[in-house]
């Protein structure tokens, strides 16, 4: 009896202790939670300001959506309109919510898909309903079930076609939804055709309001955004290359370089290029739906922009590798870097100059200068080559046995460290000979494993640093990446020229003088006293 009572008392005391700890934790968490709640309003307001400040078009689009919803809500709020349309007015509200997108091309794509999908489904459902009404109720049910099965299977299979999935997937979904709603409802509802007519009418009103807001009130063209984003990608790569080379030759601690945040100017410059494929493909698709008479969208081959984005991504991979040289585990000494500072800086400036010229040509819709690959770029490349040739001992060692000697020295040091380490303690003492032999074999095995563990982290780094030309190895990689960029410039220039020929760019004139000022929100181009502003 008594042990059970004591056990119960102990359990009760443990529960009381847990409750006390829980209350103590809550008492500590409540002030922290209250402090966080105080900071949320300020953080929310700051985020709202930043989102609108980065791109003012977002604020305009939000007001356009609100105004569109207010207009279609009048179908419910005004009694004459509600009596004419009825409960189906809600479809106009749903259409505005689903169809109205940020750019005009996206709104046109979804609006026309929804309109034609609804019209085609209603027409087909009307034909099936006309055939089914001429038969008895049993055959009518079988006929409707068979029609739903066949149309549903065929429409779903069509969605797997690449061209259909890319351009009309949303329209096929709306067709399938509307057809099933009308066809199945017609079996129990008598005036289903009137309901279909009213629903199509309200959807047409919603689509009309969306197109009106997208095309006539502060339109955002997908083609213009694709065009500007391509320009910004070229400028971002140019700035990243120049900033990366400048930082490479600055005498900074390697730990400071590693601890830098990933959100640095170099990373931000090429990040937009690496992440651009889905955005470019979507913008090119939506731009193909936009009116061709637009000032920004006339005769533009949008798929050429997508192809140019792919070439820029391959070029950007080299910039990523160049950025990785700033965080190498075996840094090149500053004395070695200084020998090649001027040739590398000059070559980086020339590469950036070519990229900026390509960006300016796309922005102003003109062909590149015939001298875009000027003699200055080749001279900078030749200077770097001569500088490397002038220091042959940095890249070609003379002592072939130095690496072997250093490895032997590392092994000797590791053995000395192991001898100084304390021995293995025995868990139990045995006096018989078998126990002694087991202990000796375990000690031999443990000593080999310990020596191997000591050698393993040292040998790789010592083996690399023991090479006579190891100080120049990281710089050799850095210089080879710069040379690789010069080789890849030809692909970028060729693709930009192909884009210019397909888009009918104007010819280059030496008198064209382009001055570019760029910040996070605006691009201002002044050419022959003509200024154009575009949003990022």
TrEMBL record:
<comment type="similarity">
    <text>Belongs to the aromatic acid exporter (TC 2.A.85) family.</text>
</comment>
<feature type="transmembrane region" description="Helical">
    <location>
        <begin position="116"/>
        <end position="132"/>
    </location>
</feature>
<feature type="transmembrane region" description="Helical">
    <location>
        <begin position="170"/>
        <end position="188"/>
    </location>
</feature>
<keyword id="KW-1133">Transmembrane helix</keyword>
<dbReference type="InterPro" id="IPR020966">
    <property type="entry name" value="ALMT"/>
</dbReference>
<dbReference type="GO" id="GO:0034220">
    <property type="term" value="P:monoatomic ion transmembrane transport"/>
</dbReference>
<feature type="transmembrane region" description="Helical">
    <location>
        <begin position="138"/>
        <end position="158"/>
    </location>
</feature>
<feature type="transmembrane region" description="Helical">
    <location>
        <begin position="59"/>
        <end position="77"/>
    </location>
</feature>
<feature type="transmembrane region" description="Helical">
    <location>
        <begin position="200"/>
        <end position="218"/>
    </location>
</feature>
<dbReference type="Pfam" id="PF11744">
    <property type="entry name" value="ALMT"/>
</dbReference>
<dbReference type="GO" id="GO:0016020">
    <property type="term" value="C:membrane"/>
</dbReference>
<dbReference type="GO" id="GO:0015743">
    <property type="term" value="P:malate transport"/>
</dbReference>
<keyword id="KW-0813">Transport</keyword>
<keyword id="KW-0472">Membrane</keyword>
<feature type="transmembrane region" description="Helical">
    <location>
        <begin position="89"/>
        <end position="109"/>
    </location>
</feature>
<keyword id="KW-0406">Ion transport</keyword>
<protein>
    <recommendedName>
        <fullName>Aluminum-activated malate transporter 12</fullName>
    </recommendedName>
</protein>
<keyword id="KW-0812">Transmembrane</keyword>
<keyword id="KW-0407">Ion channel</keyword>
